[in-house]
Amino acid sequence: MIIPVIMAGGSGTRLWPLSRTTFPKQFIALTSQLTMLQQTTERLIGLTKTTPLVICNEAHRFLVAEQMRDQALDVSILLEPVGRNTAPAIALAAFEALKKDSEAVLLVLSADHVIEDVTAFQKSVLDLLPQVQDGKFGTLGIVPTEPATGYGYIKASGSHLEVSVVQEFVEKPNVEIATGYVESGYLWNSGMFLVRADRYLQELNNFRSDIFQACEMAMANTQQDLDFLRVDCAAFKSCPDESIDYAVMEPLAKTGQVVVAPLSAGWNDVGSWSALWDIAQKDKQGNAVNGNCILEDTSNSFIHSEKRLVTTLGVDNLVVVDTQDALLVANMDNVQDIKKIVQHIKDLGGSEYKQHREVYRPWGKYDSIDNGNRYQVKRITVSPGAKLSVQMHHHRAEHWIVVTGTAKVTNGEETYLVTENESTYIPIGQVHALENPGVVALEMIEVQSGSYLGEDDIVRFEDKYGRS
């Protein structure tokens, strides 16, 4: 059976300020109504009926679960306690897959790629399958559309029309070398792989026994936690950080055991704002526009607004991205350097690199709409049937005003309902909880007041989502 393994880690800083550490690009709807993770699972329809295995980190686990529920998909979610790159992550998936099928074939995909021609994608996977079942390692090589310098390349023995043996994986080149690669028929390295689980572990043990052993120990002591499979944290932390390319694919290619299927399907890894502009629908002036925007004498630009009106006049080749708490204005030719901006925000101690003003939680979300000396105002949305943890605060009191829906409030020894246009007060040090017992979303305004209003002033006594 083919078991899809979807790699959903990563912070996506190159698409800041839309993509951030706690809400990276794979969870954002960038090119359609579906998020990039949801698009990845959608393109598996008709290829395999096997439950996908999504690998993500602790911070993103509820985002994955919620987005899969939105698609009514049954998925397994494996949590990495720390990031250790792709070679260990795929090893964890391989160990898990072998519990279900001794001949399981892993289809390793990134959660943040765009593939326009799903039929071509599925055909390339199936073209690889016979040789992979015989023990070869398969990869999808993208037929280049330009001498790109942002991708590694694959030198193959055959043409762009057939599955062929990989002769060499090569690093990201400069423009001159990339031009030569394209003229010589090289393919882009997509980072998508098809491999038997047992063969992957065999060759990983051969080339990197240290990674194999650490992952074997991590999977020897797993725990099921709600929708999530947790591995042994201490064992996995001891695992070296390495990509599948360096650990297995490059040394194995020297033995002739790696094959590649060419893929021409409108693939894009959406690694920058210019890459997103490339694939976006544009007006006659070459502008890609999202949101409430007015453009005059503007050309070849990407303009995005979440809420506010954004206007441009007399500009060309710009990226303008406006979110609720950050604005990016950049020359299209310089967007690869956005990571410098992100690092500068980190150095200054800002939070804008990490999270949006609107923050998602397993029970819903909150939007920090105002703050000042000794007060903070949030708009809180609690999903139907969801409940915040039983908690208390040492430094702040809270006043809750219900706007829509019904809140079930635990306030010390009392439990009562608060409905629309009603409010309640939670004193400092009071044990309390908030629940939505209804079938519609609960919308409320929370006014916090006190000497310290940080998110770390939460003492949890009970939590249905397993948070400490």
Outline the fold blueprint.
Layout (H helix, E strand, L loop, with lengths): L1 E6 L28 H7 L10 E5 L3 H10 L5 E5 L5 H13 L6 E6 L3 E2 L2 H16 L3 E6 L10 E4 L7 E7 L4 H9 L3 E10 H11 L1 H11 L3 E3 L2 E3 L2 H5 L6 H10 L4 E6 L3 E2 L4 H7 L8 E3 L2 E7 L2 E4 L4 E7 L1 E5 L4 E5 L6 H10 L10 E4 L2 E9 L2 E8 L7 E3 L3 E9 L2 E5 L2 E5 L4 E4 L5 E4 L6 E9 L8 E4 L6
Parallel strand pairs: 1-2, 1-4, 2-3, 3-11, 6-12, 14-16, 15-17, 16-18
Antiparallel strand pairs: 4-9, 5-13, 6-9, 7-8, 7-9, 8-12, 10-11, 18-19, 20-21, 21-22, 22-29, 23-30, 24-27, 24-29, 25-26, 25-28
Helix pairs in contact: 3-6, 3-7, 3-9, 6-7, 6-9
Key features?
single chain; 468 residues; alpha/beta; Spore Coat Polysaccharide Biosynthesis Protein SpsA, Chain A; Jelly Rolls; 3 domains; six-stranded antiparallel β-sheet; five-stranded mixed barrel; 11 helices; 30 strands; 23% helix; 34% strand
What does this structure look like?
- By secondary structure, the chain is α/β, with parallel strands linked by helices.
- It folds into 3 domains: 2-268, Spore Coat Polysaccharide Biosynthesis Protein SpsA, Chain A (Alpha-Beta Complex); 279-347, no CATH class; 358-462, Jelly Rolls, CATH 2.60.120.
- The protein contains 11 helices and 30 strands.
- Strands 20-21-22-29-24-27 form a 6-stranded antiparallel sheet, with no helix packed on it. A 5-stranded mixed beta barrel has the order 6-9-7-8-12. Strands 14-16-18-19 form a 4-stranded mixed sheet, covered by helices on one side.
- The longest helix has 16 residues, at 118-133.
- It starts with a strand and ends in a 6-residue tail after the last strand.
- 39% of the residues are buried.
- The mean pLDDT is 94.
